[in-house]
Amino acid sequence: MQPGDELEPLRITPDKYLTVRYAGASGDFNPIHIDEEFAHEVGLPGRILHGLYTMAQVARAQTDSGGGPASLKRLSVQFRGMGVPEVELTVTGTVTEVREDGTVVTESSCEQDRKRIIRNAEAELRLER
Amino acid sequence: MPVNTAAIGKTFAPATYAVGREKIREYAHAVGETNPLHLDVDAARAGGYDDVVAPPMFAVVYCLPSVWPALFDEEIGIDFGHMVHGGQEFEWGPVVVAGEEITTTTSLKDASERRGNGLFVFESVSVNPAGDTVCTGLWTNIVRGG
Question: 71-100 in A: which are within 8 Å (CB) of B?
Answer without folding.
Answer: 72-79
